[in-house]
Amino acid sequence: MTMFDIGELDDFEQGIARQLRIGDRVLVVIRIEETVYVLDDRCSHEEFSLAEGEVDVETAEIECARHGAMFRLSDGAATTLPATRPVAHYDVTNTNGRLEVLLP
Length: 104
Ligand code: FES
What we know:
By secondary structure, this protein is mostly beta strands. The protein has one domain (2-103): Rieske [2Fe-2S] iron-sulphur domain (Rieske Iron-sulfur Protein, 3-layer Sandwich), CATH 2.102.10.10. 0% of the residues lie in helices and 45% in strands. The chain contains no helices and ten strands. It has a four-stranded antiparallel beta sheet, with no helix packed on it. The structure holds FE2/S2 (inorganic) cluster. Residues 43, 45-46, 48, 64, 66-67, 69, 82-83 line the site of FE2/S2 (inorganic) cluster.
């Protein structure tokens, strides 16, 4: 496991999904209030970019823009069809506003 610095909390706009590349990985980063979530940027249904989707800040979920599956940001679980499998989710630490993500 390796920690990667992904910037400052204030670099990320509330409720707006942003794609982030680290090496070969393509991730999606979402900030809601002071919490930052990082998932693989690949819908488990048909591998569409989740960064294209809308974030529901009330339920802390992201909707795939292709067919509308919802994924829970806290653990990547698929909460609605047509997706049935989770998306990988990674832990983020926030040290005085500086963010690091733990990747395998
Ligand atoms: S590709 Fe995401 S729901 Fe189909």
